[in-house]
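Q: My labmate handed me this sequence with no annotations at all. I'd like to see what the chain might look like in three dimensions before we decide whether it's worth expressing. Could you predict it?
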Amino acid sequence: MPHLDEIVGYLDGYLKIGEIEDTSVNGLQVQGRGKVERIGFAVDACMETFKEADGRGADMLVVHHGLIWGGIKSVTGITYDRLKFLIENGISLYAVHLPLDKHPEVGNNIQFLKLFDVSDIKEFGQYHGVNIGFMGEFKEEKVLEEFAEEVGNKLNTKPGVLDFGKEKIRKVGVVSGAASSVISEAVEKVDVFVTGEVSHSVYHSAKDARVNVIFAGHYATETLGVKALAGVLEKEFGMETVFIDVPTGL
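A: Here is what I predict for the chain of 250 residues:
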């Protein structure tokens, strides 16, 4: 049974958490039991996730959206309740935000492209001077409407589509979550831009530039990374992992 410090050290190095500026405090946010037998993986740090993790016997929880963003100003209200639950139940909380989006093996964006057999993959989607997404090409052209349906089926989501570009698409770029700021780069490089969260500001930019956009859901596009990371830890430490699905529908 691995020790918490051993797992944290491995994750810090594998995910290279110090290589990108982030509002999230990436790494171990709450320390729990020293020995870790089972790890839960989830998108969001919230009471529903914590209670499910405890119910499924998780000693540690790895999430994409953690509790600490910039710092803790006070331990009251919801913050108190959440921390109290984790500490009383001995559950460690590890958060990894942008480093998981951009990771070239288990990241949300590379995992999305792997679902659709995309080739000629390159970095894409600058944020604070660092690429956090990826782009590539389908081996054969796809009809936009059919691709959107495929995205919905594979991510169990109901994507929104701005069909302002080509009906038949080949180049695709993806940045999970809320990445409307990448639209200006997408206009120059891809036939369809995939992100998670719907943004009003993207509508006219996409329309005027004649580029397609698919909003596949913030939650749905960010389940991919934690699931892939779970597989890495299973192999590295020979331990049991569980995915805790708490969808928001957003």
